[in-house]
Known about the structure:
alpha/beta
Amino acid sequence: MRRLLYVPVIHVDSDLGSIAPAIDKRSTEICGREHWEKHKQVVTAFWNQIEKYFKKLNAGNLKIYQDGLMADGEHGQKIIEEGAQKGSRNYRIVLDLINRGGEIRKTEDIELLKEEYARILKLAQSKSLWERTTAYIGYRFRRDKIMENRDRFIANTINQTLKEGERGVLFIGAFHDVTPYLAEDIHVEEVKNPQKVRDYFRTLISGGDEKKFDELSKYLVQGLTNND
């Protein structure tokens, strides 16, 4: 049997590089400053729990697949180290796993990443209503297909490189859905429920149901049981 730990990732500013200020500004406009600041606190607590979970995990020979990682070996490790130095909680966890015996593997197709990044950047930096509208329409038109292509590529990579008896971990954005494309003999263990993470974001953006938002926030920050 092949095992895969599935971690739905919530990206922080340090993961977003040069587009982080634009994303933060636009998110504040959409969600409201109070909600957006509360969201940042929730995300910090979320990553605290994920970090505790993996600190207790035996990382020996663990195969690591990472959202956005288009290289392995020395190049891939350099990317992880640079991201960790810039403050990425995700990359700090991955770097710790590497230092304790884990192995990173190329996960993504660079051309698909370039296309999605360019569209997100255009959407985030649009100023006028017309620019925002046309950028959004263009992004929505291609977003689902790009996401599906990325998910299929990632799943195919795991199917081909995770060997019988091996254990891997996938750190992947919460709105991805890689599981349907994984081989049937790969046993997926969700570290956090991806659907609940997605519901949290939808509630955050809609700003409608405060009770549901609080319930989902509590789920995100609650402790994790490590059965390793």
